[in-house]
């Protein structure tokens, strides 16, 4: 018999959905029913999300200065809030938890107005716009990188770390084994929902500058946009190298676990998963990210020595080629980076967040959790 229902709300990108998925598994293990509110973009993740039901409510971004567009967005949000009220009245959740993105605004606003216990989780080192809108209304804020002291909402903020999915916990069991000269070298490249286009151009060029013996060692997994597939595939065929190119990989955690080096953006979930699995990485923060949150996320892991951070404007194909050459010829350096990254990982973040959810749902204080995720 279920202990009750917990309603999770998340925007439809992996950065929002993945930590919500990790919490959902923990709540299901503890005997709760879990429902998810999201948008249509999350369909690619829905197959693995352990929700009893997945709901889509109207939502909109208030990003335009055009009065008509602002009015339209507000109308959509109001419609979404009405739909969320009906949903909450029907499923009667013990708690509503938001993970950022504008699809979280209607259900969290409805929950706070109805007196339903609520909290948000912020994955990034800089709070996103949707969570900023909700921060004053919710009872608690859990943070992947947010500080508990000195922040705008420090009295109700707990640094939990970012929950990672079971697939990531499984991949973390695989020890890092450096690739010695003449052995295959697994390079994993991905850019998230934004920013993959840059890697589609830079990586093939950088690889073409490598000496043939190094190129022949490379085994590449690269996420590319559908419109870049043929270009990247033709380059890898011309260079006669092993490559797995696709717009999306459902087994990315396993691929990261098999990697000798990762080249990627620095979204919060990505940074947290790299740390838990313990893999060396070159992080290239997405330069157009709002509030430069990716740069802040990258800096948090770079401080441990587990990753190297390079601005996109500075990472020419020539420089990337030099980095790859050095990485492939200095396995002991990558092994040290892998160990440093793993030491910074927080594999128990999902359990801590689940503890907080139960406390909020039961009307208890969160003060007992302060410092628990440090």
UniProtKB/TrEMBL annotation:
<comment type="similarity">
    <text>Belongs to the glycosyltransferase 28 family. MurG subfamily.</text>
</comment>
<feature type="domain" description="Glycosyltransferase family 28 N-terminal">
    <location>
        <begin position="6"/>
        <end position="141"/>
    </location>
</feature>
<feature type="binding site">
    <location>
        <position position="294"/>
    </location>
    <ligand>
        <name>UDP-N-acetyl-alpha-D-glucosamine</name>
    </ligand>
</feature>
<feature type="binding site">
    <location>
        <position position="165"/>
    </location>
    <ligand>
        <name>UDP-N-acetyl-alpha-D-glucosamine</name>
    </ligand>
</feature>
<keyword id="KW-0573">Peptidoglycan synthesis</keyword>
<keyword id="KW-1003">Cell membrane</keyword>
<keyword id="KW-0131">Cell cycle</keyword>
<keyword id="KW-0133">Cell shape</keyword>
<dbReference type="GO" id="GO:0008360">
    <property type="term" value="P:regulation of cell shape"/>
</dbReference>
<protein>
    <recommendedName>
        <fullName>UDP-N-acetylglucosamine--N-acetylmuramyl-(pentapeptide) pyrophosphoryl-undecaprenol N-acetylglucosamine transferase</fullName>
        <ecNumber>2.4.1.227</ecNumber>
    </recommendedName>
</protein>
<dbReference type="Pfam" id="PF04101">
    <property type="entry name" value="Glyco_tran_28_C"/>
</dbReference>
<comment type="function">
    <text>Cell wall formation. Catalyzes the transfer of a GlcNAc subunit on undecaprenyl-pyrophosphoryl-MurNAc-pentapeptide (lipid intermediate I) to form undecaprenyl-pyrophosphoryl-MurNAc-(pentapeptide)GlcNAc (lipid intermediate II).</text>
</comment>
<dbReference type="InterPro" id="IPR007235">
    <property type="entry name" value="Glyco_trans_28_C"/>
</dbReference>
<keyword id="KW-0961">Cell wall biogenesis/degradation</keyword>
<dbReference type="GO" id="GO:0051991">
    <property type="term" value="F:UDP-N-acetyl-D-glucosamine:N-acetylmuramoyl-L-alanyl-D-glutamyl-meso-2,6-diaminopimelyl-D-alanyl-D-alanine-diphosphoundecaprenol 4-beta-N-acetylglucosaminlytransferase activity"/>
</dbReference>
<dbReference type="GO" id="GO:0071555">
    <property type="term" value="P:cell wall organization"/>
</dbReference>
<feature type="binding site">
    <location>
        <begin position="13"/>
        <end position="15"/>
    </location>
    <ligand>
        <name>UDP-N-acetyl-alpha-D-glucosamine</name>
    </ligand>
</feature>
<comment type="pathway">
    <text>Cell wall biogenesis; peptidoglycan biosynthesis.</text>
</comment>
<keyword id="KW-0808">Transferase</keyword>
<feature type="domain" description="Glycosyl transferase family 28 C-terminal">
    <location>
        <begin position="187"/>
        <end position="352"/>
    </location>
</feature>
<dbReference type="GO" id="GO:0050511">
    <property type="term" value="F:undecaprenyldiphospho-muramoylpentapeptide beta-N-acetylglucosaminyltransferase activity"/>
</dbReference>
<feature type="binding site">
    <location>
        <position position="193"/>
    </location>
    <ligand>
        <name>UDP-N-acetyl-alpha-D-glucosamine</name>
    </ligand>
</feature>
<dbReference type="GO" id="GO:0005975">
    <property type="term" value="P:carbohydrate metabolic process"/>
</dbReference>
<keyword id="KW-0132">Cell division</keyword>
<keyword id="KW-0328">Glycosyltransferase</keyword>
<dbReference type="Pfam" id="PF03033">
    <property type="entry name" value="Glyco_transf_28"/>
</dbReference>
<dbReference type="GO" id="GO:0005886">
    <property type="term" value="C:plasma membrane"/>
</dbReference>
<dbReference type="InterPro" id="IPR004276">
    <property type="entry name" value="GlycoTrans_28_N"/>
</dbReference>
<dbReference type="InterPro" id="IPR006009">
    <property type="entry name" value="GlcNAc_MurG"/>
</dbReference>
<keyword id="KW-0472">Membrane</keyword>
<feature type="binding site">
    <location>
        <position position="124"/>
    </location>
    <ligand>
        <name>UDP-N-acetyl-alpha-D-glucosamine</name>
    </ligand>
</feature>
<dbReference type="GO" id="GO:0051301">
    <property type="term" value="P:cell division"/>
</dbReference>
<dbReference type="GO" id="GO:0009252">
    <property type="term" value="P:peptidoglycan biosynthetic process"/>
</dbReference>
């Amino acid at each position: 018999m279920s202990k009750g229902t917990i309603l999770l709300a998340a925007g439809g990108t992996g950065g929002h959905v993945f930590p919500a998925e990790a919490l959902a598994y923990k709540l299901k293990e503890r005997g709760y029913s879990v429902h998810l509110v999201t948008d249509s973009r999350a369909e690619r993740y829905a197959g693995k999300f352990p929700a009893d039901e997945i709901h889509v409510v109207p939502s909109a971004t208030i990003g335009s200065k055009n009065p008509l567009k602002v009015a339209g967005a507000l109308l959509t949000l109001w419609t979404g809030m009405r739909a969320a009220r009906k949903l909450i009245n029907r499923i009667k959740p013990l708690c509503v938890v938001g993970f950022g993105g504008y699809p979280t605004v209607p259900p969290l606003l409805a929950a706070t107005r109805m007196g339903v216990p609520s909290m948000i989780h912020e994955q990034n080192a800089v709070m996103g716009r949707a969570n900023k809108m909700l921060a004053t209304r919710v009872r608690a804020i859990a943070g992947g990188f947010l500080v508990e002291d000195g922040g705008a909402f420090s009295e109700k903020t707990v640094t939990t770390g970012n929950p990672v999915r079971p697939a990531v916990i499984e991949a973390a069991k695989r020890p890092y084994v450096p690739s010695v000269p003449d052995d295959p070298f697994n390079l994993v490249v991905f850019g998230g929902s934004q920013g993959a286009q840059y890697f589609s151009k830079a990586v093939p060029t950088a690889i073409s500058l490598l000496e043939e013996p190094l190129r022949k060692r490379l085994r590449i997994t690269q996420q590319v946009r559908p419109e870049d597939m043929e270009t990247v595939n033709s380059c890898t065929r011309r260079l006669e190298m092993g490559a797995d190119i696709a717009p999306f990989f459902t087994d990315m955690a396993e691929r990261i676990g098999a990697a000798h080096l990762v080249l990627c953006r620095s979204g919060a979930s990505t940074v947290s998963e790299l740390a838990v699995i313990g893999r060396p990485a070159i992080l290239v923060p997405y330069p157009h990210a709002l509030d430069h949150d990716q740069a802040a996320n990258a800096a948090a892991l770079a401080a441990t020595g587990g990753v190297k951070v390079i601005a996109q404007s500075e990472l020419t194909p020539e420089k990337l080629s030099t980095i790859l050459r050095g990485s492939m010829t200095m396995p002991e350096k990558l092994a040290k980076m892998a160990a440093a990254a793993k030491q910074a990982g927080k594999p128990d973040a999902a359990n801590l967040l689940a503890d907080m959810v139960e406390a909020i749902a039961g009307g208890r204080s969160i003060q007992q959790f302060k410092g628990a995720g440090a």
